[in-house]
Specification:
Length: about 775
């Protein structure tokens, strides 16, 4: 008697067996008449409970120690589940007797995937004992599916030498897929598969890249321990396939005794066209015993390589080889002169390398910075690296500003990124005789942040006095820095600073003769701790300014002070119809923040004008404004529908507005249905939202969204399925399409949630659901029952 261990009852398994028994008793006509009732969860659970009493314990039990002979015999059972239980148990135990091997071999090519995969896995684990199963393994090697071939190749590889000749015979008639897996098995066998070398070498010129790579791996594993290994690997290193060359370099790298020819190959491969080959060759060269001068040249070439991967390998190699940092830095600085002006990525990478070397000599840093002036890099891209050069280098940067004022953005960014470590340099810069140095230091202080100990009452007062400087750039920078310091500072610290009469300071700045200063005054109005009346005066002056730059700054600031919008509404509305595109876009952005008076005629007129503007940027801004204000004016809604055109920015804005406003239009649903096939994913997602808002005919809506359930984009599928779920029972016709998604690992969560919300299914889905009861996917089984 075998001992049966009964685990906790699995309700899913009970329900599955119960429903199979119940449905098996009914004729097709019964299903057609009462299929909907069968899908009722309450009745289903009742049926499951009744029938569960008659389900054999073996259906829910796990066999623990049934005799091997019985398990082998059970592999021939007509009951699929018994066969599966037997193969799982035999593989779990790791039995290697010939009876077990033959039993596993007989199901190694079964039509049931679970049986086949488990049997092949068991044969793979059996090692040389699986030799008796070679005919079945060779048959599995010809399977059309890659998984059986892969598992069979592992088993053949573990059998070793006895499998070589039968595999060679199979190779002669095999297709490319099978040859790939045979090559993997030959690689596992290694030197004992020497007879396969001629065939494998022929495959090194195959049109199939994967076969070339696997054949190369096999060749290397076969010859690696022989005296001819190096010569063979050197020939492989000349192959036209990059994958083969990579395997050759790996093989050469793995040789315990590397001949000079191998070292020369590493250097030669540094010129390879493939990035991965160069990276591997550099790593191999660094590990080799090369003279210091040759190694230094290799590292330098790697540091200047176009591939980021090769450069990273070179930086690691530089530290590992402990090269002379000064000589290498000198060579790198010299190489900067040869860089194309447009090669920003490489220039930033080189600055990072040089910063790692912690250069402090002013002459070296000066050379680096002077070369940077001719490169077309953005300041923010290299600022972090520059900051790592240290305080001495930062002082040199400031000195360079006298000769190169254009370098100011780089220095300002580097100083701000250096943070508190640059405090002495910054404080010294405020006292410089050069305006550009003072401006750079002021801006850097503003970027450091209010929490820095550098920001003291004395420093605040010093910057405040600089708002009266003769240079406009210095006045603008000082005012902006004051605003930055105060914008995120807590009230306790603000009280420690001399902030009295900031109102007068800001109003004076709003009347400054410099456009830049007036613009900063407007942009700072919402962040400085001043009276609301002063804020209003500054922003009103900015909105009435003749300079578009100042008007735009005032409008942007108003977005952060919506309480002032009602009093300044006329000026903002006027700004939507004059000035640059940037100004008019900023005006609509500000209007979108209004919390009251959103029904005023002048506002509606401004939106109507904005929605018909020639500039799509202005139309998009007006559309976003309309959606924010939720103005349900029919003429504006019609304009929204008219803007569902080709411009993507405007199209997205219009779709969001339609979802928010629900305009009534006879042709709108059809237009939105057309957008469900739009090439842009975001458009399709928003089109689903908008269509669900305006389509009143639920059957039409379900029909269109059911098609979107099969979309290639996860986001679109999720949106379509979730929207169908909100329709409840009205979406039951979509259940078959949604149900299929449960078996998809990416989709199962939202698909099963929608099935629960819909909570019914059409009679036509019975066949699909019953078939799904045999699925290997547990959640598919569960929801088929549900």
């Amino acid at each position: 008697m075998s001992r049966i261990s009964v685990t906790a009852l699995d309700p899913y398994q009970i329900c599955r067996n119960a429903l199979v028994v119940f449905l098996g008793m009914k004729a097709t006509s019964f299903l057609a008449s009462y299929g909907a009732i069968l899908l009722s969860p309450a009745i289903l659970c009742s049926v499951a409970f009744c029938v569960a009493c008659f389900v054999p314990l073996s259906a829910i039990a796990q066999i623990e120690d049934q005799p091997v002979a019985e398990l082998v015999e059970q592999l021939q059972s007509s009951d699929l589940k018994q066969r599966r239980d037997a193969v799982y148990e035999l593989v779990r135990r790791g039995e290697r007797s010939q009876d077990v091997i033959r039993g596993l071999a007989e199901v190694a090519n079964d039509h049931d995937e679970q049986l086949q995969f488990q049997a092949l896995m068991g044969l793979g684990r059996a090692g040389k004992a699986a030799q008796a199963a070679m005919p079945e393994l060779l048959e599995a090697m010809q399977d059309r599916s890659d998984q059986p071939r892969y598992r069979a190749s592992i088993a053949l590889g573990n059998i070793g030498k006895p499998a070589v000749q039968p595999m060679l015979e199979l190779w002669k008639k095999a297709n490319t897929d099978t040859r790939e897996d045979l090559a993997r098995a030959f690689a596992m066998i290694g030197p004992d598969a020497k007879a396969a070398l001629p065939m494998l070498q022929e495959s090194l010129d195959s049109d199939r890249e994967k076969l070339r790579r696997l054949a190369a791996e096999a060749c290397i594993d076969i010859v690696l321990t022989t005296d001819s290994a190096a010569a063979f690997l050197l020939r492989l290193a000349e192959n036209s396939s990059a994958n083969v060359r990579i395997e050759a370099i790996r093989g050469l790298r793995g040789l315990e005794e590397k001949p000079q020819t191998a070292l020369k190959q590493f250097e030669k491969s540094l010129q390879d066209q493939d990035d991965a080959v160069r990276e591997l060759a550099l790593q191999a060269a660094v590990e080799s015993e090369l003279p210091q001068d040759r190694l230094e040249a290799i590292i330098l070439a790697g540091l200047l390589d176009a591939s980021p991967g090769v450069r990273v390998a070179a930086r690691f190699g530089q530290h590992k080889a402990q090269l002379d940092q000064t000589r290498l830095a000198t060579a790198l600085i010299g190489s900067l002169e040869k860089l194309p002006k447009s090669d920003a990525d490489l220039s930033v990478s080189m600055i990072a390398m040089l910063s790692d070397m912690k250069l402090e000599e002013s002459a070296e840093v000066r050379g680096i910075l002077e070369q940077l002036l001719r490169l077309e890099s953005k300041p923010e891209d290299i600022a972090t690296e520059l900051a790592d050069f240290g305080p001495g280098a930062l002082s040199t940067m400031i000195e360079l500003l006298q000769e190169h004022p254009d370098f100011e953005p780089y220095v300002a960014a580097a100083l701000s990124n250096a943070g508190d470590s640059a405090s002495e340099v910054l404080l010294g810069g405020l006292k410089s005789e050069l305006p550009v140095v003072r401006v750079t230091s002021i801006r850097a202080i503003g970027k450091i942040g209010s929490d820095s100990p550098v920001v003291s009452p004395e420093l605040f007062q010093q910057i405040r006095e600089m708002t009266r400087a003769s240079e406009p750039a210095e006045r603008a920078a000082s005012l902006h820095t004051l605003a930055l310091i105060l914008s995120d500072m807590d009230e306790a610290r603000i009280k420690e600073l001399p902030t009295e009469k900031l109102d007068e300071l800001l109003e004076r700045a709003s009347r400054d003769k410099s456009e830049s200063v007036r613009a900063v005054a407007c942009s700072s109005a919402a962040s400085l701790p001043i009276r609301g009346t002063s804020q209003q005066r500054v922003l009103k002056a900015g909105l009435d300014d003749e300079s578009p730059k100042v008007v735009t700054a005032a409008l942007t600031s108003l977005e952060n002070a919506p309480n002032l919008l009602s009093d300044l509404l006329q000026q903002v509305v006027r700004a939507t119809q004059r000035g640059t595109i940037e100004t008019r876009v900023a005006a609509f952005n500000s209007l979108g923040k209004i919390t009251e008076d959103s029904d005023k005629k002048e506002l509606i007129d401004a939106l109507e004008n904005g929605l018909t503007e020639e500039s799509t940027r202005i139309r998009s801004a007006a559309t976003n404004c309309l959606a924010s204000l939720k103005i349900k004016e029919s003429r504006l809604g019609n304009l929204l529908v008219g803007n569902l055109g080709r411009d993507e920015e405007l199209l997205l804005a219009s779709l969001e507005a339609i979802s928010a406003l629900k305009p009534v239009s006879k042709d709108l649903p059809r237009t939105l249905e057309g957008l469900l096939d739009h090439p842009q994913e975001r458009v399709r997602v928003l089109a689903i939202d908008a269509l669900a808002t305006v389509q009143k005919d639920r059957s039409e809506l379900v029909a269109r969204l059911t098609g979107a359930v099969q979309d290639s984009s996860w986001n679109v599928r999720q949106k379509a399925v979730a929207t169908l779920g909100t329709l409840g029972a009205d979406a039951k016709s979509a259940v078959p399409a949604i149900f299929v998604r449960i078996a998809n690992e990416e989709d199962e969560s939202f698909a099963s949630a929608a099935i629960r919300e819909i909570d019914t299914a059409p009679v036509e889905s019975i066949e699909l659901l019953v078939k799904s009861l045999e699925s290997e996917h547990l959640r598919t089984q569960l929801y088929a029952i549900y």
